[in-house]
Specification:
Helices cover 50% and strands 16% of the residues. The chain is an alpha+beta fold. It folds into two domains: 3-93; 105-221, Cytidine Deaminase, domain 2 (3-Layer(aba) Sandwich). α2 packs across α3 (48-58) and α8 crosses α9 (188-201).
Amino acid sequence: MSETDDAHYLGHRERLRARFREAGGDALPDYELLELILFRAIPRRDVKPVAKDLLRRFGSFAEVLAAPRARLLEVKGLGEAVVDDLKAVEAAARRLTRGAVAKRPVLSSWSSVIDYCRTAMAFADREQFRILFLDKRNALIADEVQQTGTVDHTPVYPREVVKRALELSATAIILVHNHPSGDPSPSAADIRMTRDIVDIAKPLGVAVHDHIIVGREGHASMKGLQLI
C-alpha cells in the first residue's frame, strides 16, 4: 500500500469516527456503522468494500450480525478476529434488549419484549421455539430456547412446555418463535400447537399470555390477531 493510499483510509477513519461522535450511530448508514466495527480487527486496510460486500450478501446491518459464523467466514477479508467482533456486537445487542425486559413487569413493557424477541431471533437461519416464563407479577423468571429446528419447522411438545413452566413455578408464559422466511404470519400448525398448549396449561393455573412470531418483515401476535 502506498503512502497516499495509507493517508486516504486513515483520514477516512478519523472523519467517520468524528461524525459518529458528533451525530451518533443513527446518522450513519449501515455500511458506515459496519466500518466502525471492522476498523479494530482490520487496522491497515480500506474496509468500506468489505462492509458493502457484507450488506450485499446478507441484506442489512442486523442480518450481518445474525449471520452464521461459517457464512461470515466465507466473505473475502474476514477472519476469525473480525467475526468475533461482529458476534460480540450481536451479543451486546441481545443483552441490552434482554435487560430492558428483565427490569420490570413484562406486560407493562410490551414494546421492549418485542424488541428483545426480534433482536434474539428474527434473523436466525433456523426456526427456534423460545419461552418466556413469568411469575405472578408478570416478571421474567427465565428465558429458554426449548427447540431449534430447520428452516421451516421446529418440533414443539405442548406437555413438555407446560411441565417446564410448573418446574419453574411460573404462572404465565409467552411463547415465541421465528420464521426464517421473513413472513411472521402464523401457519395453521402454529395456531393448533398454541391452542393445544393453552388447553393443557389453563387447568394447571398457567396462563398463555401470547404467542409472538418474529421475522425480518416484522412480528405477529396471536393474541392481537384474536387466534387465542
